[in-house]
Amino acid sequence: MYFYHDSRDLEYRSPFGAVTKGTPIRIRVRSDASSITLRLWQSGIETLLLMEKSAGGWQSASFTAQNTGLIWYYFLADGQVYCAPQDKLGGNSVHYEKGELVSHQITVYENDFHPPRWMSSSNMYQIMVDRFYDGCEGELLKKRDDIIVHTDKNEPPYFDPPPKGEEDMNLNDFFGGNLEGIRQKLSYLKSLGIDVLYLNPIFAANSNHKYDTADYYRIDPTFGTGADFKRLCSQAKEMGMRIVLDGVFAHTGDDSVYFNKKGRFIGTGAYQSKDSPYYSWYHFENWPDKYRCWWDFKTLPRLNTQDPSFLDFMVRSTDAVCAHWLKNGSSGWRLDVADELPDSFLEALRERIKKEDEDACIIGEVWEDASNKVSYSNPRNYVFGKQLDSVMNYPLRDALIAFLMGNEDAQMLRRRILSLQENYPAPMFYSLMNLMGTHDRSRIINILGRCDDQSIPHELQRNVRMSSSQRQRGKELVLKMLGAICALPGMPCVYYGDEIGMEGMRDPFCRGYYKWDDPDSDMRDEFTAILKNRQNSPVLKTGHLKMYVLSPDALAVVRWFDKGYDIFGEPQSDLTPNIFVINRAESAEFTLRHQGREYTVKG
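and the corresponding C-alpha cells:
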C-alpha cells in the first residue's frame, strides 16, 4: 500500500502548525488505499471522518479547531492499516500493522494571545547576583555573621557532601556580588549586545542562591535594598534594557517570615502555631514536623498555591507580590519550577500581571516541549494563551548539544526544531528563551569540550580543569551554538561568564564568581559580534524560518521576510534573506536553493 502525509507540508495540512480557536483545518493524504478514515480527538471527544477522494490519489477531510487545547489525529487505511508519525516529533506518517500509535498534534490557542513583542527582539543575560560583581567593596556581606566569605574571588565555590536527606549543595559561601555591582556593569552588558537581564532570586533568603525565599517584599540585605533595585531598573531603562525577576512561588524557605521554623522572624510562622496567618499556606500532614517539601528537602516547604489567603498575598491584593515588583521597575517574571504551579494559579497570575503591565513577560521553567507537557499525570495548559508567554527552551538546547557532540545528525536536529515550530503557537515560538548555559547544569564549555564526567564524585568536581585541547574544542562549539540560537527564532540567553569561557562542573561549580581580572577577551569579542549582529538584524528577530540539511554535519538556517512581511504580518523593507550554517565539521562551502534562487554559503 502507498500512503503519504506530512503534517509540515501545506499540501497535506493547512494551515501549518498551531492555530487559533475557530480556524478551519484541512487534512490531505496521497494513497492508493480504497478508503481512509481520519481518526480525530478534539476536546477529549473521538471523531471518525471518512476522507473524500479526488484525482491523483488525493483524499481529504476538513474540520474546525473548536476549543483551545490539543487536537490529535492519525489515519486508518482500508480498515486495518494504521498510518501515524514514527515518533513524537511528528512530520511524515508511516505504516503500523499493530502496536501503540503516536498521533499527530495540532495546538489550538486563544485568538488574543500576544506575548510582549520585545521578547522576540531581545538578547537576554542571566545573572546569579552573588557571583557577578561586588559594587560595594564587601560592605554588604558584613550584614551577616553566619556565612563564609571568599577572600579569593577566583577560587571555586565550596562544597561539602551533605548529610543524608539534606539539600545536596553548599548554601553558605558568598562572593559578594550585589545589585549595585550589576548597575555598575550595565555599560559592559550593553556593549555586549544585551537587552534583558534575568536575575536569579534577589529576595531575602538564607542561602547564596536565594531559592529558599524568606521575605517576598524585601531585597536580600547582602544584595542591597529596595532603593538599589529601583535605581538599577531606572538606569537600565534609560539604557534601553529590561530586568526580569525569578519568581519562586511553589515553595519558601523553612527559615522565613511565613514558616519561621527557627523562630528568627517577628510574628508567628506556620511552624510555630496553627493560629498563624500562614498556616493554611502549607501542607501539614502531622503539624509541625511532617509537611510536604519540594523534592523532600526539609528546608523547602511546599506552598498551597490554591489557598485563598496565599492567592491574595501573591496575586489578588492591591500590592500583591507579583504586581509589587512590576511597580518597582521589573519587566516580568521567570517562574521557577512551573510544573509545581497549578493551572488555576498560573491563570490568576497572568490575569493580574497583564492587568498591571500588559507588556510584562511570564516565562516558565519547563524542561520539555511545553505544548504537550504532562506533570503529575495531568496535561498542562501552558501554551494556549491563558498562562505563560514563553518557556525556557531546553529541548532546543538538548538538540544542539546532541548535534554538536556528534550524537545526532543534521537531519535529526532539523526534525527536533521543526517539531517545536509546529507545536508552539508562533507568538510563543518567537519568544522562547533559547538558553545555552544555566545555573542548573555544568558550564556549556565543559559539556561541549567533553570535560563533564559526572562519574567523578561531586566534591571532587571542584578541582576539575579543562585541558588546552578540551578548552579549544569547547570554545569552537560554544560559538557555533551561540550562532545557532541567534539565527533561530526566540530570545537568545547567555549565562553570565559563558561569554568569557568560564569553566565549571555540576552546581555549585558552574556558579563561580565572574572572572573580571582574567577573561577570555577573544571569546568575549566573538560573543559580542554574534549578539550585535542579531541585535541589528530585523530578519533574525521576526523573519520566517526555513531549514535545509546540507550534509549530516551541516544545517542551514534561512530567515527571510516573505513577500515583504515578517511572521507577524508587519511590512519590512529589507528582502535579503539571512543564511546561517551550523557545521560541526571542518568549514566548507555549500550550495542551497531557497525561494527559487540558488545561494552559495560557507560554514
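(Above: one complete record from the training split.) The CA atoms of residues 179 and 223 lie 6 Å apart.
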